[in-house]
Write a structure and sequence with these properties.
With about 180 residues, the protein is α/β, with parallel strands linked by helices. It contains three helices and nine strands; from the N terminus they run βαβαβββαββββ. GO terms for molecular function: guanine phosphoribosyltransferase activity; hypoxanthine phosphoribosyltransferase activity; magnesium ion binding; nucleotide binding.
Length: about 180
């Protein structure tokens, strides 16, 4: 049995994802020319998107990573834990948080507050997927959005269910019977 058998529908093809990363990278290039931003990928889900995104940014950047957790299974616990912090100081620096998907807004809201507390010059968010669902509890401002997607549990291209499916080259809806 292959992973494809667990997917009910492909939401974004590999080609569509590459196109979105190119478009977002070009916009970030324009907005941050001469500013040398730090792109902060939230592990583990955003690593594939970060890789494609930075290939399309044509200005000086740095990258760093944070590992944060707020999910248990398919639901947000509401409690954000920092498992891996940044490697360097961000004081006075422009930060772009790179996220795979925005759902409830809890994790991002906490991370933005945390980075502002550390005196970042600015903090913006770049996400591949925006899922405006009823579970969105906080209004988090996302400057760069790849695409909006409908409600449903998506996996692939870094997104997981219990650490599986990250290796799919596309994003698909996981069959509900696999996580219900």
């Amino acid at each position: 049995m292959t992973l494809k058998n667990d997917i009910s529908e492909i939401v974004l093809t590999e080609e569509e994802i590459v196109s979105l990363a190119k478009s977002l990278g070009e916009q970030i290039t324009k907005d941050y020319e001469g500013k040398k931003p730090i792109l902060v990928a939230l592990l583990k889900g955003s690593i594939m998107f970060m890789t494609d995104l930075i290939k399309n940014i044509d200005t000086h950047i740095e990258i760093d990573f944070m590992d944060v957790s707020s999910y248990v299974g398919t639901q947000s616990s509401g409690e954000v834990k920092i498992l891996k912090d940044l490697s360097s100081s961000i004081e006075g620096r422009h930060i772009i948080i790179v996220e795979d998907i925005v759902e409830t807004g809890n994790t991002l809201n906490s991370i933005v507050d945390f980075l502002q507390y550390r005196k970042a010059a600015s903090v913006e968010i770049c996400t591949l997927l925006d899922k405006p669902v009823p579970s969105r509890t906080l209004d988090v401002e996302v400057k760069y959005i790849g695409t909006k997607i409908p409600d449903g549990f998506v996996v692939g291209y870094g997104l997981d269910f219990n650490e599986f499916y990250r290796n799919l080259p596309y994003i698909g809806l996981l069959k509900p019977e696999l996580y219900s």
